[in-house]
Design goal:
This protein has three helices and no strands. The chain is mainly α and 64 residues long. The termini are far apart.
Length: 64
């Protein structure tokens, strides 16, 4: 018994891969995306002592 016509796959084409690589090569640069840079270089504006107090409060309530 032979396979159905829908079960026969054609040879894969590398068109999508080549297009993806060409886009990556044109967009590639040494500088990161400004949106990513703004996220990673965001200044710390949180109070670490408040965070510590919350953790201590959780620990105390867990031991009671």
């Amino acid at each position: 018994m032979t396979k159905h016509l829908a079960d026969h796959r054609s040879a894969p084409e590398n068109g999508r891969m080549m297009h993806f690589l060409s886009i990556e090569r044109t967009q590639q640069s040494d500088a990161p995306d400004p949106r990513l840079r703004s996220l990673t270089e965001r200044p710390k504006d949180r109070d670490d002592s408040l965070r510590l107090k919350r953790f201590i409060g959780i620990e105390r309530s867990a031991t009671d």
